[in-house]
Amino acid sequence: MRRHLTYANVVATLALVFALGLSGAYAASKIGSKDIKKGAIKSKAIKDGTITGKDIKDRAVGPADLAPATVFTPELLNGGQDDCLWRDVSASTPGLEAVAVRKDGYGQVSFTGMTSAVDGPGGDGMCSGAGPDAGSDSQMFVLPPELRPANAQFFFNPANDSVIVVSGVNGISLGGSNLPPGAVWTAVSGPAYLNVVGYLAADAPNSPAPMRAPARIKRSLLP
After folding, report:
1. Three-state DSSP class for 217?
2. Residue 137 and residue 77: Cα distance in Å, rounded?
3. Are strands 70-72 and 198-200 parallel, antiparallel or unpaired?
4. SS3 49
5. What pLDDT is recorded for position 93?
6. Radius of gyration in angstroms for the set of CA atoms belonging to the chain, rounded to a whole number
7. What was the pLDDT predicted at 78?
8. Where on the phi/psi map is residue 213: left (φ > 0), alpha (ψ -120 to 50), or beta?
9. Exposed/middle/buried for residue 202 (C-beta within 10 Å: 0-12, 13-18, 19+)
10. Which tens digit of pLDDT belongs to each residue from 86-125?
11. What tens digit of pLDDT does each residue of 69-86 get?
């Protein structure tokens, strides 16, 4: 016997579809933030780039929600052989900021203070910044990993018309000197005004990717 589609069949089918559609809409309209258990949505469940600044209410993210600010007091170096002693100028100049490196909750790193180098009793007894000791003599200090930039940074030093170099996470080849990751370098001919230094840390969210190999810079390109 061949079955025929009756009016009752059509009405029943439409009623079922309509009911299912309404139940879905009803459920969607009834699910709010209070229905989601705290901690149920993890960061891995949110696709990268789906939440942007416009999705966050003004002042919804405060200082307490950011990574804590840090202050690092670097250990000033001695030329490797105790022949080039870097000093914090604030120790002999009252009122001057001490040498320090700060990192805020956004990953921005800034330096303060002033350094200068003097001859030491070891090695060749000279802080010349030339010859085979050029790289080690000119290194003021080395940054810990969390304060290093992704790539080498260069800043003009107005105190002696030279440049301050901050080595990136992979180091830098500067002329004939290979600076290790995080090394802070400048000319020994005068003081280094560190307040000019500021950059984004390598582990900050918007930091560029580091170079695959150490950067290579000709010494002649620097002031």
Report:
1. strand
2. 9
3. unpaired
4. coil
5. 93
6. 30
7. 95
8. beta
9. buried
10. 999 999 999 999 999 999 999 999 999 999 999 999 988 8
11. 999 999 999 998 898 999
- What does the alpha-carbon distance between residue 19 and residue 36 come to, in Å, rounded to a whole number? 25
In 79-211, the DSSP E strands lie at 84-88, 100-103, 108-112, 114-119, 139-142, 153-157, 162-166, 172-174, 177-179, 183-185, 192-193, 198-200
List, for residues 15-44, the tens digit of each pLDDT value: 555 555 555 554 555 566 666 666 666 656
Half-sphere CA count of 216, side-chain side, radius 13 A: 3
- pTM strictly above 0.70: no
Q: Residue 18 corresponds to which tokens in the numbers above?
A: 């309509």
Token duo for residue 98 = 């001490």
Q: Per the structure block, which two tokens stand in for 11?
A: 């009405």
Q: What number of residues does the chain have?
A: 223
Joined together, the tokens standing for residue 29 give: 């309209």
pLDDT confidence band for 176 (50 / 70 / 90): confident
Which of the 8 DSSP states describes residue 107? S
DSSP letters, 120-150, are -SSTTS-----GGGHHHHTEEEE--GGG-BS
